[in-house]
User: Which sequence fits this backbone?
């Protein structure tokens, strides 16, 4: 047999090698198939499901924050962001028309959004659930649910409320009760196509979200607006850097209004976290301590040495030169020399304990983050000048809240109350789960001592340094204060804090109002610039028909009403620059309101915002303000019929704006 024939019968080594390779490859594929389909089947199934679906969190609606009467201050609103994938649209012309009708896009903008040259477009802004319903199910249009925090009264109480950033409360009540307000998120599964994009209509809810609980504050939205407006007007007119106003109930410790204004904004909490030296507003507590310990009386005589007295190397001065006066007169005329001399009857420990008992140098316990305790040095750290300095409000720093609560103790008969701003906490069904009850911290002075000091403070307002706080027929007790501003290295030249604390009516106080202005320009005495703010706040609170106040205690000698007629509402007119208040009784058609009756919205166009707000409040209407300046209109419009308690929105324009 030839060599050529032999080679044909025997496979070549190359063929054997190729065959072996194929066999090994088949064995590898079979092994890998067994591994994937057997050992790794669960892992790959999960990977496939992850590519085809996406597990997503459904944000829970954050609980509402309400004022004492249920008016919403912060609420969550369901809104939608609208995205468009032009390459998914089945009928671009129809989608364009739908977007124009539902979202309000212009024809030009709608063409851009659905242009096939784009892979993805996002329409600016967010839209209501009604818009989502119109767009739902349209392939290529993707509404994305969002929950936005809304403040129906704008920035009225933003410092107290705080804000929500990325679903977490930041500052104020939003931070303090974040865990209660945020609720429990739900879960949903969204089907996706081969490119990972959501498939419209293929969303399945796995667990429903549960909204957060509600928080009811002690704030009264009308008093908050009154305080904000009065403070804003004062800061503007005095060119102050800012200021604070607190309105409290002396018997319960409730904070009914709290406004801090800095750089034109009300987002801070200066009333609780920015201590300052109070000056003369501290003097009533020095006198109260002397009376409580029995080491002094209001009738004691003190020689003020023509308003100049040297003590421990320091010279105290009074604004007016006097001779011998009583302690009561020293308080009424705010004599530094008289009060400092009277305080010599204290032992150091007694003077320290008296101020500490009124709440200075300690936290009040208010339910807000960031409270400062101020500074009250211990007697071991005092210098020879400290007793005189502390007696007249220096070498001590306090917060406006501490001052308001201390004056509340004088107003209510001697009990220091713990302040609170949370009235109730409710679950997401509106059921009350926790209610804050009034809590007395301690009795500071006796009822008799508190009454005596309060009567002396009435004299301050009637013919002392606080006459600008007079309120017609109502007796007001109060005290002014002016102190130099400390800048860290010493007292800043020409910079002052002007303050005034008052409560009314003096016989049975309903409210304590504390006002502080930071660095007012021009006139800077507390009696000249802060007392009118106190008066303005009290007047507006009295004039507002919708108010938590007991009018039987507040109205000065109201006239008798006729049978079947509601008692008339008296209205106070005032000028921030004038010390006296004139009471009048305006047009009966506007001011005499009958139960269940309607009234017409007055035309306040052209009036200053302050005047318009006061007039509307006097009619028993709530007011929302947009901007500052003169009023150019209202919503509802003038002449429209409204009910007492309805809200009127002011549209304003700054002078000079077009």
Assistant:
């Amino acid at each position: 047999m030839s060599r050529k024939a032999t080679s044909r019968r025997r496979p070549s080594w190359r063929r054997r090698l190729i065959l072996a390779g194929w066999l090994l490859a088949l064995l590898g594929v079979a092994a890998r198939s067994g591994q994937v389909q057997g050992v790794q089947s669960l892992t790959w199934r999960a990977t496939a499901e992850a590519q085809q679906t996406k597990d997503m969190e459904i944000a829970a609606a954050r609980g509402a924050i309400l004022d004492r009467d249920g008016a919403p201050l912060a609420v969550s609103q369901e809104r939608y962001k609208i995205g468009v994938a032009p390459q998914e649209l089945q009928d671009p012309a129809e989608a364009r028309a739908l977007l124009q009708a539902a979202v309000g896009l212009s024809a030009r903008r709608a063409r851009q959004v659905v242009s096939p040259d784009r892979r993805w477009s996002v329409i600016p802004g967010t839209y209501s659930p009604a818009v989502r319903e119109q767009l739902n199910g349209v392939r290529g249009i993707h509404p994305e649910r969002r929950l936005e925090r809304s403040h129906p009264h704008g920035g009225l109480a933003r410092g107290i409320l705080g804000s929500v950033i990325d679903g977490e409360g930041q500052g104020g009540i939003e931070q303090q009760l974040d865990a209660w307000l945020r609720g429990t998120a739900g879960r949903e599964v969204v089907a996706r196509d081969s490119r990972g994009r959501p498939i419209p209509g293929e969303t399945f809810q796995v667990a429903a979200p549960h909204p957060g609980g509600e928080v009811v504050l002690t704030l009264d939205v009308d008093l908050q607006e009154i305080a904000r407006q009065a403070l804003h007007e004062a800061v503007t007119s005095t060119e102050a850097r800012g200021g604070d106003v607190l309105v409290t109930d002396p018997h319960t410790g409730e904070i009914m209004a709290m406004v801090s204004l800095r750089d034109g904004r009300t987002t801070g909490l200066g009333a609780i976290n920015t201590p300052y030296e109070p000056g003369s507003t501290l003097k009533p507590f020095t006198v109260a301590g002397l009376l409580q310990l029995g080491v002094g009386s209001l009738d004691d005589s003190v020689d003020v040495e023509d308003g100049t007295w040297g003590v421990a190397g320091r010279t105290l001065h009074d604004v007016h030169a006097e001779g011998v006066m009583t302690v009561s007169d020293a308080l009424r005329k705010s004599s530094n020399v008289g009060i400092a001399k009277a305080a010599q009857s204290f032992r150091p420990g007694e003077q320290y304990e008296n101020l500490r008992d009124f709440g200075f140098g300690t936290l009040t316990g208010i339910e807000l983050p960031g409270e400062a305790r101020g500074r009250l040095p211990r007697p071991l750290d005092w210098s020879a000048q400290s007793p005189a300095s502390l007696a007249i409000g220096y070498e001590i720093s306090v917060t406006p809240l501490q001052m308001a609560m201390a004056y509340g103790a004088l107003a209510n008969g001697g009990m220091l109350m713990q302040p609170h701003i949370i009235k109730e906490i409710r679950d997401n069904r509106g059921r009350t789960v926790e209610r804050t009850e009034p809590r007395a911290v301690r009795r500071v002075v006796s009822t008799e001592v508190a009454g005596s000091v309060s009567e002396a403070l009435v004299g301050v307002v009637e013919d002392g340094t606080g006459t600008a706080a007079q309120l017609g027929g109502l007796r007001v007790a109060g005290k002014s204060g002016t102190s130099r501003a400390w800048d860290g290295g010493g007292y800043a030249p020409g910079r002052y804090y002007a303050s005034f604390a008052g409560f009314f009516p003096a016989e049975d106080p309903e409210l304590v109002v504390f006002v502080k202005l930071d660095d007012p320009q021009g006139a800077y005495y507390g009696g000249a610039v802060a007392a009118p703010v106190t008066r303005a706040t009290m007047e507006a609170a009295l004039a507002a028909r919708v108010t938590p106040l007991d009018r039987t205690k507040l109205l000065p000698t109201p006239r008798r009403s006729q049978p079947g007629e509601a008692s008339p509402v008296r209205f106070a007119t005032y000028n921030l620059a004038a010390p006296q208040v004139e009471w009048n009784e305006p047009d009966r058609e506007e001011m005499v309101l009958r139960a269940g009756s309607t009234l017409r919205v007055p035309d306040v166009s052209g009036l200053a915002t302050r005047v318009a707000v006061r007039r509307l409040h006097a009619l028993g209407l709530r007011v929302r303000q947009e901007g500052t300046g003169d009023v150019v209109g209202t919503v509802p419009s003038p002449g429209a019929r409204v009910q007492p308690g309805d809200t009127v929105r002011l549209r304003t324009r700054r002078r000079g704006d077009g």
Notes: The CA atoms of residues 32 and 437 lie 72 Å apart. The chain has 23 helices and 30 strands. The longest helix spans residues 13-39. The two ends are 117 Å apart (CA to CA).
